Every structure is written in C-alpha cells, then in structure tokens.
Amino acid sequence: MGSEFASYDILIVGGGLAGLRAAIAAVEANPKIKVGMVSKVYPMRSHTVSAEGGAAAALRPGDSYENHAFDTIKGSDYLADQDVVEAFVREAPVEVIQMEHWGCPWSREPDGKISARPFGGMTTWRTCFAADKTGFHMLHTVFQTSLKYPQIVRHDEAFVTKLLVEDSRCVGVVALDIRTGRFDAITAKAVILATGGLGRVYAFTTNGNICTGDGMAVAYRAGAGLKDMEMVQFHPTGLPFTGILITEAVRGEGGYLLNNKGERFLKKYVPNKMELGPRDIISRAMITEFEEGHGFEGPHGKYLHLDVRHLGEDVIDRKLPFMRELGREFVGIDIVKDPIPVRPVQHYMMGGVDVDITGASQIEGLYAAGECANVGLNGANRLGSNSLSECLVFGAAAGRAAAHRVAELQPVGSNPIDSLLRDEAKRIEATYLNKKGGKERMGVIREEMQREMDANAGVFRNRDGLTKLVKDLAVLRERFETIKIDDTSRTFNTDLISALELDYMLEVAGTIAASALAREESRGAHARRDFPNRNDEKFLQHTVAFRTDGPAPRLDYRDVRITTFQPQARTY
Ligand SMILES: Cc1cc2nc3c(=O)[nH]c(=O)nc-3n(C[C@H](O)[C@H](O)[C@H](O)COP(=O)(O)OP(=O)(O)OC[C@H]3O[C@@H](n4cnc5c(N)ncnc54)[C@H](O)[C@@H]3O)c2cc1C
Fold it and tell me: What are the b/e assignments for 259-275, b being 16+ CB within 10 Å?
C-alpha cells in the first residue's frame, strides 16, 4: 500500500443513469477536467437497466411546464420544493431530446415524433418510452456516449467503503477493488454520489440485489444529512414472491385492477383517475381490499388481479412485450389469456442525501444525484416516470456544478490520505476478515431486518410498530457487530461485500424508522394509522436526519419551499 493513488478533478460513485449523465455533463462543461467513475458493478448492470415504463417530459402539444409541475407537486402531497420542480419540468424535455440526439431508440408516433404514454398521477400523456425496456435503452445511450470521452476513466467492480473527508471537505473515497481485494484511495477535488436506492432493506422489493443504500450511508457517516427518509414508495403491482415489477405502463396502456369479485375496486378510492391514480393511494387501496377480504389467497400471500386481456395480443406484443415474457417466465401465465397476480411492493426511495438544486450537499466537495439524493423533487410521493428524468436533469446539474466548483479548488495532498486509507483498510480487516470468535450469521440478520421493515415501515405505519422497529434495528445493529463471515480470501470476496452492504442497510434503515416515527401525520407514501390526516401546520417540513454517536439519529426540520401552488386537499 503506497502513496500512489488515482487522482481526478471529479470522482463519480455510481455508473447508473445519474452517474453517467453527470460524467458527460462535467466533461462537456470543461473538456480539460479528468473524471473518474467508480462502480461496484459494470455500469450496464446498474439498477437503471431494469426501468420499464418511461421518462416524463412535457413535450407534446397541449402539455405545459405548469401542468407537469402541478402534477408533480400534488403527487408529492406538497412536500416537493417548488423551485426545484419548476427547474425540473423545464429541463426534462431538453434532456429527453438530448437523449434522442445521442441515439436513444424512443418509441415513436407514425409521424416519427417521440411517443408518450399516460402514467399514474400525470394529467396528460407525457411519459416517453422505449417499449417496456426504457431504462435499458436510456442507460445504453449514456453509457455509449460516455465512451466518446477519454477524460472519463472507469474503475468498474470497485466498492466504495468510505468517503475521505479532510478539513470538512470531501476529497475522495476508499474503494475495495473487488477482483484483487486491494484497498485504494481515489482522490478528487469533488465527489458526486450517484449510488441509487436502498430497496433491499425490505424483503419484498422490485429493487436489484445491489440497491443497498451505500452512498446514503457513507454520506451520513461523513456528516451529511439524509432528508425525508420516511418517504418510501410502494408500487402497486409487483409479482408475488419475486417482487418483480409489472410496470405502471400496463395500466397506462389500459390494464384494469380487479378484486376477487371481479370489480374495478378503484372506483371507491380514486374514481376520477381509476388505474391511473398515484402509487401511494392505489397501494393503500389494495391493502384495504385485502383487509376487507376482497383479495385472492395464494401460496405467497394475498394478491389482486391486473387484467390486460381486453387490450388484445397485438397491443400487448407491441407495447408490453417484456411483460408477456415476465408473465410466462415468472408466473407461468400468458397475459394475453390470463390476469396477472399482483400486490404492492417496495419500489423507490424518495429520501436521500440532502442536496441543493445544484446537487451540492452541506459538505464542501460532496454532491449527490439520482435516487440516492434528495434534491426536493419528489416530496412524499414520486410520480412514476419522474425518476429517470430526474437522473438526467439533476445528474447533469451536479456534473456541471462540480465542474465549475473544482476550477476554484486546490488539489488535495497525499499526506493525510495515506493514513486515512490505512485506517480504513485496517478497520475492514479487523471487523470482517481477521476477526476471531464472531458468531452471528449475516443472512439471519439481513432477513430479520427485512422482515421487520416489511412489517413495520410498509404501506401503513403506526407508533407501536415503528417504536418496535427502532428498538429491533438497534438490537440487530449490536448483533451485527459480532457477525462472522466464512470467506476471508481476497479475490472476489462476495461475503465481504455482502457484509459491508448489510452494514449500510442497517444504517439507512435506522433513519427510515426514526424519521417515520417522528412524523405524526399522513402525507403521501407515509400513512400513519394513528395520524390519518395531513398536518400542514406542524409537518409541512422536510425531515433531515444526522448521525450521532448513539443509536438514534438527530432529526432536524426544514421548511418546504412553496412558490406557486398553495397546499390543497389531495383528491383524485
Ligand atoms: C424495476 C424498476 C423499474 C423502474 N422503472 C422506472 C420507470 O419506468 N421510470 C422511472 O422514472 N423510474 C423507474 N424506476 C426508478 C429508476 O429506475 C431509478 O430510480 C433510477 O434508475 C436510479 O438511477 P441511479 O443512477 O440513481 O442509480 P442506479 O441505476 O441504481 O445506479 C447506482 C450505481 O451506483 C453504484 N454503486 C452503488 N453503491 C456503490 C458502492 N458502494 N461503490 C461503488 N459503486 C456503487 C452501482 O454500481 C451503480 O452503478 C424503476 C426502478 C426499478 C427498481
């Protein structure tokens, strides 16, 4: 371990849509800067690849920025920062067209224009799509574009374990090279976190195995705030057991949700929107149907039907071919002939690293974008298809802001870095690799955490459940200190990576539980049985969680920025 380490102007952690978009924006803003990119998986395996439905942008005639902004703010249950939403809706069409110019194969109208489909909570058709594999095509587009720039240097399959912070400034990361097991310091004048979501803290989730909240946890440990962590999105239509997502586009294209009496039950809950209501309300409606005995019973619990049979084979094969494949492969049905069993499933994290509209956190040199960040766009409930656009708009914003900022910052010396790197390598070796006498099994702790999160921080919450969750997570954290991992080798040590991820998950799960317990109201995705109403007087505020030396975070509150739309009752 010498003092030779890779050094960049900007280091991006994450090779998903937000990270790649940030990298391109940074080198376009200043072609002279060097950008490093660290990703724990090869970029094309980032979770973005599995996005199905589409990316929202007000592009079509008749649509307007104002409408997209209002839909987003109402969808957020008025917890979105309205200046952020206004900037977002203006930039989203620019970004979608930029993607077009980089070769994204958007689905098209007969006249060649980019097509759009309806999506939940949007009052008009504004979700641009590439069949039902939108994320794959968008990620491919930015990945291939990034290859044009020799200034972008990738470190694939390197796992970030810690942010390097020197004199209150973020100056790089420590990364474990998964292939060799070597710890490296990678320094930079600015770091952009683009590490995606944390769905794996739940057992039943649409998120890939790699979505473990790493970036949020390392930022939190470095002193950054995590904002609105109680706001966890549940998607109405996951396949029972696997949690595989059946995209909202299925309802966008006209699919029906039916209960065990064959009724389109949403007429009782969102009569004006029906299947195109927002995700939080539809998820609650489905759980209520289960509780009232209107669900089907299956080997993996209760479910309802999502029915597309009336759309016909031609539409299904043209617009939803991947859904037909998922039905065949994972349920053994043909969706042309059979209804699809579905139930609400954890899907997206509205909360994340507290950043301003440029992506800057409170720590000098530390930026965040995409699902790991909370820029203030999604509030208490994200509208489907706003996230891919968010990754583009705010990934690009963070890349540009960091490019401008690094021109003013001095490079970091190697002196303190060497010792920070040595300390981090020693910590991990002592905690995991050279530990004697550990007894707890990692898988057991992970499953208990996930079960607790499903049970107590799900679609509906209450004080008793959340209090229990806070306590149980603290106990799991203590037990985690005594885990034993079987593999102590260096190369491709997936046991070690899983342990590091579980450490992060316990960290972020704790912020979800504490933030949710403290918010004594129901707003968007945060539905408290004991406080069923929204309370604007007390809680029209963002929660910001900071790490303490004790088991519980310190919670701070910040006003929501309201520019145009005063909070109203949220009915659909
Ligand atoms: C199944 C599914 C379908 C979806 N469909 C849609 C949709 O249709 N429309 C929409 O708007 N949104 C959709 N979403 C949400 C949206 O896809 C995500 O929010 C978005 O793609 C996140 O992108 P990202 O760039 O922030 O992170 P990701 O794409 O998750 O990338 C994270 C990156 O961080 C890296 N990383 C993480 N931790 C570390 C670490 N410790 N060290 C090094 N690297 C690390 C990973 O390697 C990866 O490259 C969907 C989500 C899911 C799960």
Answer: bbeeeebbeebbeebbb
